[in-house]
Amino acid sequence: MPVRRALIRRPGLLLADGLVTHIDKQPVDLDRALSQWLSYAEALRCAGWETVEVPPADDCPDAVFIEDPVVVQGDLAILARSGAPERRGESAGVEATLRDLGYRIARIEEPGTLDGGDVLRVGGTAYVGLGGRTNGAGIQQLANHLREFGIRTQAVTVERALHLKSAVTALPDGTVIGWDPVVDWPGAFPAYEGMPEEGGAHVVILDPDHLLMAASAPQTADLLRGRGYRVTTVDISEFEKLEGCVTCLSVRLR
Ligand SMILES: NC(=O)NCCC[C@H](N)C(=O)O
After folding, report:
1. Residue nearest to ligand 1 atom 11, measured at CA
2. What HEC string does the chain produce?
3. Is residue 10 assigned to a domain?
4. Could you read off the pLDDT of 84-131 as tens digits, one per residue?
5. Does residue 232 lie within any of the structural domains?
6. Nearest protein Cα to ligand 1, atom 1
7. pLDDT for 1
8. Which catalytic residues are annotated (predicted)?
9. With a threshold of 0.90, does the pTM exceed it?
10. Active site residue 248
């Protein structure tokens, strides 16, 4: 089987200063965050993923949310340019690691903005959230980069959540799942299904029959187990306090 790698980045000491946009600020327990992050990384490895630790960016409180500074497709790493200027310092270490791994590098350039958390690929389509972090110019540039892979790009308005993937992700069969109260346009997806919990909107596909989910969504985990999926859960409460979810703590390279 080809190597499956996932990029991860250890939380830094400033984690508690991370941005919050749609929820109130809550105290973050740093020790608990580190132990949750270690368990998250272990869950990836147990499922057969090799984890590659990107050098820390300790001046950037949100650097642990490594999904946001890059979109990787095939052998191309597209360095994003966050709509939150505080997050732009996260890119350098990600670029260095991906160069070392042999990836070609492209960039979202000014005036474009884009966060990886806004990019949901389902089959040959990349749905891209148009909202606080990602603008139309960023989506257009991403579309140009993805075209060589035969991927078409479709913008989806995001107003009620931080990122598109804060609101929806996709099951291995392509069904987009979300938490209805924060999904602006469920009709944008050919197949959409609401889940009973906010954290139930987020799945990492570890294998075609194996999902990683947050422990905060037990009803959804049971529902998906009932559909035949194996579901591994991890407690990521300290990251959820910063509007993070299971998807944003790693970048799966395939
Ligand atoms: N892709 C994601 O959902 N990333 C979560 C980023 C959370 C971070 N506190 C932020 O506001 O940028």
Report:
1. 19
2. CCCCEEEECCCCCCHHHCCCCCCCCCCCCHHHHHHHHHHHHHHHHHCCCEEEECCCCCCCCCCCCCCCCEEEECCEEEECECCCHHHHHHHHHHHHHHHHCCCEEEECCCCCCECHHHEEEECCEEEEEECCCCCHHHHHHHHHHHHHHCCEEEEEECCCCCCHHHHEEECCCCCEEECHHHCCCHHHCCCEEECCCCHHHCCEEEECCEEEEECCCHHHHHHHHHCCCEEEEECCHHHHCCCCCHHHHCEEEC
3. no
4. 999 999 999 999 999 999 999 999 999 999 999 999 999 999 999 999
5. yes
6. 117
7. 62
8. 163 (proton donor), 248 (nucleophile)
9. yes
10. yes
Instruction: Provide the residue range defining the domain that includes 111.
Output: 21-52+62-253
Find out whether the beta carbon of 82 lies less than 6 Å from any atom of ligand 1: no
pLDDT for residue 232 is more than 70: yes
Residue 184, domain CATH: 3.75.10.10
Ligand 1 atom nearest to CA at 116? 1
Give a yes or no: residue 215 inside a domain: yes
Q: Is any ligand 1 atom within 6 A of the Cβ of residue 245?
A: yes
Q: Which of 60, 145, 245, 248 is an active site residue?
A: 248
Domain-embedded: residue 76: yes
Residue 84 Cβ inside 6 Å of ligand 1? The answer reads: yes
Distance 219 CA to ligand 1 centre (A): 24
Ligand 1 pocket, 95 CB below 6 A? no
Whether 244 lines ligand 1, by a CB cut-off of 6 Å, is: yes
Q: What confidence score (pLDDT) does residue 254 get?
A: 76
Q: Is 60 a catalytic residue?
A: no
Query: Structural domain tally of the chain?
Result: 1
73 lines ligand 1 (CB under 6 A): no
Considering the chain, what percentage of its residues have pLDDT values greater than 70?
99
